Amino acid sequence: MKYSLAIAATFGLLLSANTFAATEISAQQAMQQHRVSIGALSLGHNVVSPDDATAQVSKLADERGATSYQIIAMHEPGDNSSMHINAILYR
């Protein structure tokens, strides 16, 4: 019984992990929701697409305790090098 309860609890936590992931918001949403900036981040290594950038920013925002983030700049160079992204983190 304890074993099945532990499995069910673990499975539930895994499914709910995405529920608590930081979400992307706009500047207008940040102002309307009175979000508090808790910092900023920049990415410039191993970012290959806009989807990859969003995923990496979301992951880092989670690690830093942010509930949301706003990507303020996304520069895609003309050559095949990594994209550069700047974001603001909010709580």
From TrEMBL:
Signal sequence range: 1-21
Cited SUPFAM superfamilies: YdgH-like (SSF159871)
InterPro entries xrefs: BhsA/McbA_stress_biofilm_assoc (IPR051096), Dodecin-like (IPR025543), YdgH-like_sf (IPR036275), YdgH/BhsA/McbA-like_dom (IPR010854)
Pfam family, one: YdgH_BhsA-like
Record lineage: Bacteria, Pseudomonadati, Pseudomonadota, Gammaproteobacteria, Enterobacterales
PANTHER family the record matches: OUTER MEMBRANE PROTEIN-RELATED-RELATED (PTHR34156)
Alphabetically ordered keywords of this record: Signal
Keyword Signal: yes
Source organism, top-level taxon: Bacteria
Gene3D superfamilies in the cross-refs: Flavin-binding protein dodecin
Protein name, UniProt field: Putative biofilm stress and motility protein A
Domain YdgH/BhsA/McbA-like, chain residue ranges per copy: 37-91
